């Protein structure tokens, strides 16, 4: 009987994990609380962003972002995420001023029937766990588009750097209003999965915007800048303030 109970519990655990559609950056299974995951909180994964500037982590990853609550965009699978599809659906404004103004913490926008809120958050992880962001706020977790934005302040002009991005699933990224990186297809997040052409970070403040789209499964991303030798660029300050 004891062996039977152990087997039943093991099967339940496996079924639960598979039902979550989990796919973290390492390619393994993300560990969840042992009980049914009913606590709706972002607290284990995010904290409120502070007003004081912050630098990237030791590997150059940007850990402070403004995140918009997920936009409902139903897709039964991720194989439709071609370059054409991504540009048509992510390089298009979902609400007035999306690309013209920079969001503020607590700002509300209307997308169709949805009223969505921007959240200024930071994390100790190298990746931004969008699934956990949505789940913790009791929002739609699958068939969604997430928007992200941040500001980096450079003490001097930095030429020939590259934006390196990983995302689950497809995503599109802009630097100072220009397309920098596009990740298409059904993919799992891997650091530096796609790298931009050579870019210039101007002296002063630079605006990064991103959009991540996913059907079923987990959603997350990671972003950093690397130099010509593939080394992390860390001489940056993250502010969430676009004013020059």
Characterization of the model:
With 244 residues, this protein is an alpha+beta fold. The protein has one domain: Sandwich (Jelly Rolls). The strands form 2 sheets. Strands 1, 2, 3, 4, 5, 7, 9, 10, 13 and 15 form a 10-stranded antiparallel β-sheet that branches. Strands 6, 8, 11, 12 and 14 form a 5-stranded antiparallel β-sheet that branches. The N terminus is likely disordered.
Structure summarized in a few sentences:
The chain has three helices and 15 strands.
CATH topology: Jelly Rolls
Which regions are unreliable across 5 or more consecutive residues at pLDDT < 50? 1-36
The helix-strand sequence is: HEEEHEEEHEEEEEEEEE
Domain unit count: 1
Main beta sheet strand tally, sense and closure:
10 strands, antiparallel
Task: Write down the overall geometry.
Answer: globular
Percent of residues in β-strands: 25-35%
CATH class bucket: Mainly Beta
CATH architecture assignment name: Sandwich
Average of the residue pLDDT scores: 87
Helix content estimate: 10-25%
The beta-strand count equals 15
Distance between the termini: 69 Å
Please work out how many helical segments DSSP would assign.
3
The radius of gyration is 18 Å
- Give the class from helix and strand content and strand pairing: alpha+beta
Give short descriptive properties of this protein:
disordered N terminus; five-stranded antiparallel sheet; Jelly Rolls; 244 residues; alpha+beta; ten-stranded antiparallel sheet
How do the strands and helices of this protein lay out in sequence?
Layout: H1 2-20, E1 47-48, E2 64-68, E3 71-72, H2 83-90, E4 108-111, E5 114-122, E6 128-129, H3 130-136, E7 144-154, E8 158-168, E9 170-175, E10 178-183, E11 194-195, E12 199-201, E13 204-214, E14 220-226, E15 237-238
Antiparallel strand pairs: 1-5, 2-5, 2-7, 3-7, 4-5, 6-14, 7-13, 7-15, 8-11, 8-12, 8-14, 9-10, 9-13
């Amino acid at each position: 009987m004891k062996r039977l109970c152990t087997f039943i519990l093991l099967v339940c655990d496996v079924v639960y994990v598979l039902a979550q559609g989990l796919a973290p950056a390492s390619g393994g299974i993300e560990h969840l609380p042992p009980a049914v995951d009913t606590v709706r909180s972002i607290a284990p994964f995010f904290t409120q962003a502070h007003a004081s500037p912050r630098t990237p982590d030791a590997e150059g990853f940007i850990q402070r972002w403004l995140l918009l609550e997920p936009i409902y965009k139903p897709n039964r699978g991720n194989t439709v995420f071609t370059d054409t599809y991504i540009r048509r659906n992510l390089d298009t404004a979902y609400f007035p001023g999306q690309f013209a103004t920079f969001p503020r913490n607590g700002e509300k926008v209307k997308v169709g029937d949805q009223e969505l809120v921007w959240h200024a958050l930071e994390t100790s992880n190298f990746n931004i766990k969008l699934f956990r962001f949505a789940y913790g706020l009791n929002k739609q977790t699958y068939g969604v588009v997430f928007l992200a934005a941040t500001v980096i302040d450079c003490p001097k002009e930095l030429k020939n750097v590259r934006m390196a991005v990983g995302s689950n699933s497809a995503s599109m990224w802009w630097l100072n209003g220009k397309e920098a990186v596009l990740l298409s297809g059904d993919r799992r997040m891997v650091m530096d999965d796609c790298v931009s052409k050579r870019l210039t970070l101007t002296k002063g403040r630079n605006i990064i915007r991103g959009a991540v789209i996913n059907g079923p499964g987990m959603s997350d991303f990671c972003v950093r800048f690397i130099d010509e030798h593939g080394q992390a660029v860390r001489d940056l300050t993250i502010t969430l303030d676009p004013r020059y």
